[in-house]
Specification:
mainly alpha
Length: 122
């Protein structure tokens, strides 16, 4: 319980923009420090160092800002920005996955444009 409250205290002051035209601005240092503090409070082994967490979040932010955010549909950007704000995860990695998931589902969908149709021989 203390860990959850600490996370909320550290992350709760961040502002999340819900306007889908601009990518949300997140405090990566606070996020990574809060995750590390949560692990310590719960006496869990540290899975990733704060520096590794910051590096991963920075890479995800770069991927979002370079192409993924602009290429995503407005409805997807709105939903993802809203979800990270509501769930309190406030992570660029979570945001990137949320943005990429619908695109991955589209690419895995079977091509039904010719299914059930037979070609006529000339």
């Amino acid at each position: 319980m203390k860990a959850a409250l600490l996370s909320l205290a550290l992350l709760g002051g961040q502002s999340i923009m819900t306007a889908s035209d601009r990518m949300p601005t997140l405090n990566v240092d606070a996020l990574c420090k809060a995750r590390s503090a949560d692990d310590k409070l719960m006496k869990l082994p540290e899975v990733r160092s704060v520096a590794d967490c910051v590096h991963d979040e920075t890479d995800a932010k770069q991927a979002l800002s370079s192409k993924a955010w602009a290429d995503a549909e407005k409805s997807i950007r709105d939903r993802c920005a809203r979800e990270i704000a509501e769930l309190g995860t406030r992570s660029y990695l979570d945001l990137l996955i949320c943005i990429q998931m619908p695109q991955g589902l589209k690419s895995q969908a079977p091509d039904t444009s010719t299914s059930g149709k037979k070609r006529k021989a000339n």
